[in-house]
Amino acid sequence: MTADSNRLIFVYGTLKRGFCRGHHLEDQTFLSTALSAADYIMYNCGSYPGLVIDKLQGVSIHGELWRIDSQCLKLLDEVEGVAEKLYQRGSIRLIQPEIAETVEAYFFQGSVDQLPVVGNNWK
């Protein structure tokens, strides 16, 4: 990893280890499993999940915490469709592990009106 390995990312779906897009993180640093604050809802978008902020009805989401470099961040932005406004990267609050640094996640930008709620863990 390069000297700019200073970004923390929380992944909760297909980017997790063992899932179809997990290979994009294989040369990065896995830190731990993680649990978000109860401020989020995860929807089933078909073959992938979509996370949205919902401070009223949210639950804690299970995922993984990674330290990634800027090249990987650029790749993940492409994979997650940030330019196409499918996802937007933003800060997420974790309760496990407790961490003082900013952690980011990809938040779904589409309509969730017709999507089923997944629960707290994408399996």
How would you describe the overall organization of this protein?
The chain is mainly β and 123 residues long. The chain has one helix and nine strands, in the order βββββαββββ. The chain has a six-stranded mixed beta sheet. Strands 4-3-9 form a three-stranded antiparallel beta sheet, with no helix packed on it. A hairpin with a 4-residue loop joins strand 3 and strand 4 (49-53). It is globular.
Q: How can the largest sheet be summarized?
A: 6 strands, mixed
Give the overall silhouette: globular
**Cα separation of the termini:** 29 Å
Query: What level of helicity do the residues show?
Result: under 10%
CATH architecture: Roll
Beta-strand content: 35-45%
From the alpha carbons, calculate the radius of gyration and give it in angstroms. Answer: 13 Å
The number of helices is: 1
| CATH topology (level 3) name | Hypothetical upf0131 protein ytfp
Widest sheet: strand ordering: 6-8-1-5-2-7
**How many strand segments?**
9
Using the coordinates above, name the CATH class.
Alpha Beta
Query: Whole-number average pLDDT?
Result: 94
